[in-house]
């Protein structure tokens, strides 16, 4: 499901940073270990930054300053650290298995839960809030409304971002390619038949607009 | 199913009538008698006169959902808010002590607390909580907690729980006293006259709701004896009461604008609601406590598994003659649920025993049609096995043992799936072909009626605005949309002329969304409120226009007074109202709702006998739904039920290591859900021969899909898989068994 090629993410790095310190259940990270992590030097002469640093992200075309930790994911930065928050991007699995946090990084779809915020500096990030041009919805957004391609709506931003990235890159995409483009997204309400209808309608609208 | 037909009862007072309505508590439905006014009220009217209701509607909140503007509980951010998460018990059964010393010193951590010490009975049961300024600090705090864990003997499987030397799971015994029904001796005698008898055991694993938005609440700091709680709940109005105790306040406003699924698991505030409230009260800071995905899998409910042993006999024509069954419900520490056998089918003589077997796993909760998918799998599989034993057509055997509606639907669905042309109607395909196609069927029923719990307010303001308010919630079914449509239709307005407000306690009483009762309870009250608002507006206008209220007509062109033959635009008519405008209340109307729905589903599958690959090619569902409020939304919901059942058939099961007692797949990587590449061609047929009032449809649609798929697998290749999910390893073993003969 979480295709690292598609999201362009170094899985191992985030996995290491998140799990450093042991298992969540039962693992004991005492005071001494914490203070060592904050000391900056671990004996190899390499200085490590810790705590919060301010970075600048390019979000939906605007420069936004945000304080993050080195381990803060892009998802966490969007939802919990940016003011005002961009909470349209949803947290569901937090491990690249569901697609709910799909955003565009330099026009390519990526799972925000698998990206570190600090790695996104200098890249152009589009979230669901920035997909429409003002009041004009993206063809995928419009088609989702018209074809009832959503129910509870929690997976919807992820599906919309995955399909819009596919169609923006390849307006002639076939239904099979569109299904492949959202194969990493999960909808528990089970709206897939309407999602496929909407994807095809959006594809036709894109093709029509091109002519 | 006693829940199917509400019948008028004798003994009502003059001007009143008694009717039976379903009452749902935690998703479990029972019928209760209530008294309602026996008077002329609002009517839905003929369907061909409808302009919005029963049409293809665009959801009024669709734009909010596709732009990320829709705010879910998970998205709520309040000034000074702290994030909180639980630490769960790492093993199945233990004596636990919690040392919070180091956790409290972690930078950013504001509070660490014990949630439970002493005996802990399942993996993931919350034992401690950490509240901190950032999510990262919460994780650090949780990691710094030192648990003292003394392992105790556990039983996480049915076999372990029933073993002679099993550890005690439940004080009153690891199995409940069996509930017995029918006369086993009469059944034994009835088997003697059968043309064929089959015996088999069918198993369903535990499945998860897997709501995409996890359980939890954001609790604001209580002030002046009142508090606001943002809660992802199926019971917005009722859940307010649950927060009053832990918050120590008299008034609680629950806000639930949008929610990311519930499926029966979100009726209660739960330990997460209680702990968030206590933290908010004591720390004087808003608390954001949403379960982690892992916690959600381990402690937020599940659909109970079951083991059902069935003996079923029929006569040569396929009439079901005798059935004996014994059912073990596997609901962990809960009782589990099972709708009972012979479920939908009429069997001349039947008897059954049913009991709960308890294990050291979290308790099951209501889940979309509690107990029905389990009963469906046992019964539909057994009926299929008997049909092959008798050599009777798989559709015919069903038609001979069910009622008229199901018979009609079976014919229609059989035609749509291609049964009539199918070459294997009484025998599976046992040829040497390597890819084989099979078809299977399954039936469903559900109550889905309404009851009088909602109070809806419709307000018309002098500026022309119309507002409908009720403290209901939308689990994704489209409540805002049909509330808007009903009011707009009654007042002759477009959808854009009405604003529906739901998802707040203060918008007025509403029922919990359980047992598919929301629409049948709410829609009649909305219609009534709109009807009353229209009448009150007509009376006010009649005074102004010196006309009679009965001569004032509201239609798409505005307001027309038949006496003076004067037409007013809607806004101009509203401008004649005083500053208070019109405010009307609506309550449930028995004549606008109905109860009891039926469905038939069929599946066509392809089996590759070399690899054991199973591909579902097509699914068809026909569903009677009473008055469909929104045809597009109804189809979405039918597809949703079919997709969930497809997912049960192919993938879903909780995996617990029996030696370690721990859950092996408490995440979305290992607990697989059907997604875009598994979805077959899907057809949803709304049964328009059903002319009744509003009935809920959600539950019925999830009942039979997996049974139809399992039956189709057997039809395709002769392998009967008696446990879900239908994985390739099971299929290959079955195929190998067939070859051996």
Mean pLDDT of chain A: 84
* Relative helix content of chain A: 25-40%
Q: Give the low-pLDDT segments of chain B.
A: 1-10
- Total E-strand runs of chain A: 5
End-to-end CA span of chain B: 41 Å
Biggest sheet character of chain A: 5 strands, mixed
Rg estimate of chain B, integer Å: 28 Å
**Helix proportion of chain B:** 25-40%
Q: Would you give the CATH topology of the largest domain in chain B?
A: Aldehyde Oxidoreductase, domain 4
User: What would you give as the CATH superfamily of the largest domain in chain B?
Assistant: Aldehyde oxidase/xanthine dehydrogenase, molybdopterin binding domain
Task: Give the overall form of chain A.
Answer: elongated
| Principal-axis shape of chain B | globular
CATH architecture heading of the largest domain in chain A: Roll
Low-confidence runs of chain A (pLDDT<50, min 5 residues)?
1-39
Number of E strands of chain B: 28
Structure in words:
The complex is a heterodimer of chains A (211) and B (741). Chain A has 211 residues and is α+β, with helices and mostly antiparallel strands. Helix content of chain A is 36%, strand content 12%. Chain A has helices at 4-7, 11-19, 31-38, 74-81, 139-146, 156-169, 175-181, 192-210, and strands at 53-59, 62-68, 102-105, 108-111, 124-126. Chain B is of the alpha+beta class. In chain B, helix 6 (236-247) crosses helix 7 (270-283), helix 9 packs parallel to helix 16 (705-717) and helix 12 (479-491) packs parallel to helix 13 (518-545). Chain B is globular. In chain B, strands 5-7-3-14-11-12-13 form a seven-stranded mixed beta sheet, with helices on both faces. Chain B has a five-stranded mixed beta sheet with strand order 9-17-16-15-10, with helices on both faces. Chain B has a four-stranded mixed beta sheet with strand order 18-26-27-28, sandwiched between helices. Classes of the chains: A alpha+beta (211), B alpha+beta (741).
